Amino acid sequence: MLKKLLITGANGQLGAECRAKLKPLAETIRLGARHGLGEAAPHEEIVYCDLGDKVAVEAMVEGCDGIVHMGGQAIEAPWDTIRNANIDGLFNLYEGARKSSVKPRIVFASSNHAIGFHRQTERLDAKSPTRPDGLYGVSKVFGEGLASMYHDKFGIETASVRIGSCTPEPDNHRALSTWLSYDDLIRLIVCIFNVPRLGCPIIYGASNNDAGLWDNREVGYIGWQPRDNAEAFREKIEASVPRPSGDDVLALYHGGAFCGHDIHED
Amino acid sequence: MLKKLLITGANGQLGAECRAKLKPLAETIRLGARHGLGEAAPHEEIVYCDLGDKVAVEAMVEGCDGIVHMGGQAIEAPWDTIRNANIDGLFNLYEGARKSSVKPRIVFASSNHAIGFHRQTERLDAKSPTRPDGLYGVSKVFGEGLASMYHDKFGIETASVRIGSCTPEPDNHRALSTWLSYDDLIRLIVCIFNVPRLGCPIIYGASNNDAGLWDNREVGYIGWQPRDNAEAFREKIEASVPRPSGDDVLALYHGGAFCGHDIHED
Amino acid sequence: MLKKLLITGANGQLGAECRAKLKPLAETIRLGARHGLGEAAPHEEIVYCDLGDKVAVEAMVEGCDGIVHMGGQAIEAPWDTIRNANIDGLFNLYEGARKSSVKPRIVFASSNHAIGFHRQTERLDAKSPTRPDGLYGVSKVFGEGLASMYHDKFGIETASVRIGSCTPEPDNHRALSTWLSYDDLIRLIVCIFNVPRLGCPIIYGASNNDAGLWDNREVGYIGWQPRDNAEAFREKIEASVPRPSGDDVLALYHGGAFCGHDIHED
Amino acid sequence: MLKKLLITGANGQLGAECRAKLKPLAETIRLGARHGLGEAAPHEEIVYCDLGDKVAVEAMVEGCDGIVHMGGQAIEAPWDTIRNANIDGLFNLYEGARKSSVKPRIVFASSNHAIGFHRQTERLDAKSPTRPDGLYGVSKVFGEGLASMYHDKFGIETASVRIGSCTPEPDNHRALSTWLSYDDLIRLIVCIFNVPRLGCPIIYGASNNDAGLWDNREVGYIGWQPRDNAEAFREKIEASVPRPSGDDVLALYHGGAFCGHDIHED
Amino acid sequence: MLKKLLITGANGQLGAECRAKLKPLAETIRLGARHGLGEAAPHEEIVYCDLGDKVAVEAMVEGCDGIVHMGGQAIEAPWDTIRNANIDGLFNLYEGARKSSVKPRIVFASSNHAIGFHRQTERLDAKSPTRPDGLYGVSKVFGEGLASMYHDKFGIETASVRIGSCTPEPDNHRALSTWLSYDDLIRLIVCIFNVPRLGCPIIYGASNNDAGLWDNREVGYIGWQPRDNAEAFREKIEASVPRPSGDDVLALYHGGAFCGHDIHED
Amino acid sequence: MLKKLLITGANGQLGAECRAKLKPLAETIRLGARHGLGEAAPHEEIVYCDLGDKVAVEAMVEGCDGIVHMGGQAIEAPWDTIRNANIDGLFNLYEGARKSSVKPRIVFASSNHAIGFHRQTERLDAKSPTRPDGLYGVSKVFGEGLASMYHDKFGIETASVRIGSCTPEPDNHRALSTWLSYDDLIRLIVCIFNVPRLGCPIIYGASNNDAGLWDNREVGYIGWQPRDNAEAFREKIEASVPRPSGDDVLALYHGGAFCGHDIHED
């Protein structure tokens, strides 16, 4: 059991899910966000902090033996936003980890958008080359690289989870392939903290979908077997969402709509 | 939903199965064969046509947005038969598709006999080299090549399904590995018409058999998960069919008995 | 059905399991060991024999059309012990097979210790290079090589089963990955004797564990689908066994504790 | 040394080159074409024959222990032309080989157009999937499949040579990658007839070009090391041929201009 | 021939080399640096500019159809330095390229430090996973990701050259493997601008060293065959530089000394 | 420079070659054999010793920082001979290395007969599965496994050199592929002792033959580029040695004649 688990971005959708369900993992849960965390429950600590503020981030990280890093910018945005939250912010987080009195294990919320420009007709695994689909995706490539370096050089273990479509239900045709249920996400995080030796793996965050695109066989040692399946929602989606044409980015690329976004200018 | 689905070879075993079960896929089902199609049911159209007759084939294909091509010669035969039905006939079909007022998506009934001379001790996937086991198998290699070219050059999408042993039940030891149930075949065809972007994949047509030889992981995006399993028939087969010796073509090669056939002379 | 199945090491844990459950495979079971086999049951024959005694081994093997070779030294030991039982002994067994009046099919109890020094963060299959973790593991590399040569040169088929942790229950964290249930072992042996053409495969002997490390997809043709799963015992293990640290050989290597053993001197 | 070497298409460019330079390979050279072979030199035999005429082809092949098959249709053409020369014609040739009183070794002039729709930015080897770029290319896929089957089933050895751009000099930018000098072609054919065991390899026919696209390392056992290099002609080409734009099929695809041809209708 | 080639970092060692030797590539050479460019020669333009200044960078890039980006921070440094020059600076460069009136082709000076933590006993190619060896290396992973995205999304072609040890002579044992001569670098840049279709390749920048570690076979289409060989300097190095011990980072890792550097704090 | 280099089997053909040419590598050369070493030259030490004598072997190894192990049984032989020299003997050598006051680096004379039953039409590299072609080949598989284990467990570095046909000249058709010149062997050994970090590689010992079968690209870091080429002897061989038929083991398998030998009985 962990002594202190930090959940960043704890006011976001996934952060809140982690807050609600990861209590059994640690004696204390430290919750980080810029705002909106409400009141601390028993065994919770609340830290308000901007990821771009190095001193504050290092203080937030100090003393935590586990980190679930859901913080940062979670969709495409102008460069300054991405750079501050996902590049400077992540550097600050790892510097905190390096300097901390205890060496934390980290779950890094990477994204399928790190490989978004591969075609859906191509299956990917952890060794597939990255093909980011926007500035957000490039920031995730940066993050996986940073995690790799802190592992090789300082022994900090990170699981980079390339999250697919993590929503209550899959809600479009692409999500029949990319959906990650909340329960499967939580089970994955538990596995990551339970395995005696983690190393620095890349893991695709998708449920056990019939139409899955990603191959996690290389990380069998983690012991994660997702149980949910987007196929259960196919009829509902077919009935309510127009099927994209074969030339639509939604149908062509792993990254879907992100592949069609232009650079967001300030 | 398709406007008009053409099923060729509709008087054959698999064609009849498709006729019976694919109705929900299309507003109209056009059935093609040389003879023996009986009376048209509601929403059915019947076309009698020899695949070697280019004008007739092009007329049959015109206006169909989906084609399940079960027609042609389905077992080893003299060259003239194979050539007329599976080489000239397939060229005629694709020319019909190219010239049609609507661009059809095609299911091409390829065969395990395109890779029949690989050893059963070797697992295959879609990238394994072809090793046809007779003139019939060579005609399927030709067909997959033709489909590939019409896709690259004209954008016509085809799923080449290398059908294993598609029978009501597996009925010999090799079929414990190669069996494809009728239900799994139908589910596969439905998946092929449902996926927004098909591309031009090669798919092994086998059920979820414990002793399977073929790996479809590269086409996970199709969303097809076969449900039947030949293992359920193992006891019955062991009780009724002599187990082949280890030096028998039935035990040595993916293609089984076809590997032992001589060239069929006229 | 086999005429005569030889089970060596029949007084050991796995040998006894085979003795109890493999009866349906053969008309007669011949049991071999140095001692301790009790009374022969109906359809059983008992042969006392040291594997290092070439004449005795050849006599024991004569006339058997199946061999389950569980005999030999099963854990790390001084060189003379390993050499006598696993190197000389195995050579004697294969010479017996070569000279026998019937050509036997052989199950060779190899071991995960043939690949023990690979990291647990790396997934292995039958083509992964060997990395033995001690003299015992080196003797298994020798044995797999010997089996390969007798197959290529003399047509004797062997399944080299790299057994994981074959115990009634998984009893430590590593075994959550490496456990092989007795039932899955027995089912595997049955499959090996049933497949018409075996060849000379390497098979990882592990149950269907959520946290499995080994990939058997290349031997799908055997038809073995393990059914048990060590995950069912995770809670019990977590409650009763201290989790190893990430730098412990138990957490680092496929071979676990064997990787930490020094050479056993006489 | 061969007894009798058949060169088909001996009136074509490559056939004539073979006629001029392969004399040392055989006691007798039999030359086949539809017309235009002039007078037979000493040790030459001339046979006029249409590849579509089965009886004539079988007679031409009878008694030859080596065949260099340069005959057939060598560029894109209407279907009937391709089908007659490259499909029916090749079947006739192999039937002749099968029925002949001596088993010939065959050099089959396949073509880079069997893989023409791969991108030039992608390196290919013999295991790369075929992607034919027209009816001509599809006929070469057919031919390689036919050769494979006659090897597996009847033991007839064929080298399928995917010829690049075999001309006196490379004469455009793509040929800097795809050029095969006449001398390298002749050396290759000599190697093919000298190796004691040929099997049924696919070999890319290109010289040792700095900008080469194809990898022949799998066929090192043939002993062919091409010596010419298109780079010697780069300056001349840059000075005389406009460099294609990056979106031109000449720059995009292995098959170059063929990828832009429409189907040739009669 | 290019209209206008921008060389950034033109006052650095490699930039100066490019300035001296790339004149034949373009009608005009625009030289960029923060300072120290001396006087413009005929056909040269000089632009002083900080890479972190977005407006200035976009102005510098405007109108150039080729860019050799040697600018930025070239060794390990504190985060702010790396971030400003190699992350913000590179983003500014690509935004300039995207907005420019002509679409430039870019040579990006990436580095072996993007893969520095792989062991020297392991050979790498362009598909090997990145393993950066410091903040500098991570910034190169970021840069390659950015280049990939601007290619997939906006069609801007980049060659990411993972430069080894680009010095007048190899001067230590590791450089016997990693040396890139100035002449080979220049020849590579010429090839990159000459190939009609570049795509977005990763190229290892090393000469034809006997002890090379990197495999460029996937980019044969570029036509670059390095001609120099560090082996010519082996005796001199052995005589003047102490051979590192086998446990030294110089001997263990592709990245050499960088793997031993701590994070540079401001 | 080494302090003391042990050459075992120094009275054999290759051992004598090493004795003559490796002097520059070490201050002292210790020569081991059972007999026939003549007089010690300056800087030479002579040790007579049977490899099966553990005490004697350990004394021979003590104090050597380099070992070229050419000793042992070098061709097929009865089991007792192989076992004593190549199994017990090699164990004794590594135990000597483990117990020695200095940790030696070892060149182990493995053999192509460790992979001899692969077909010549198949190219091999260090990761190809072993397929030994006799008891001798099995002993080499054992030896490579032993070397791997002493490296992983005790840090002893070994280069396992799978020697092809090491003779003054290639003298048959297979040797056109497998020949290793004496000079290339010596250069290889020098490289092995010069590289700062060796690890535990498998290296194919063959010259730069046009018809080579083996791929050493994974060990580029060693810096060995063989310079001789068996092709220079092709005419001589063709003139003096009958070309084997395609069904001869000489033409079929990497191991050549060894694949045809029966077990040598005492």
UniProtKB/TrEMBL annotation, chains A, B, C, D, E, F:
One Pfam family linked to the record: Epimerase
Gene3D superfamilies given in the database record: NAD(P)-binding Rossmann-like Domain (3.40.50.720)
Membrane among keywords: no
Protein family per UniProt: Belongs to the NAD(P)-dependent epimerase/dehydratase family.
Protein name: NAD(P)-dependent oxidoreductase
NAD-dependent epimerase/dehydratase domain segment(s): 6-164
Highest taxon, organism lineage: Bacteria
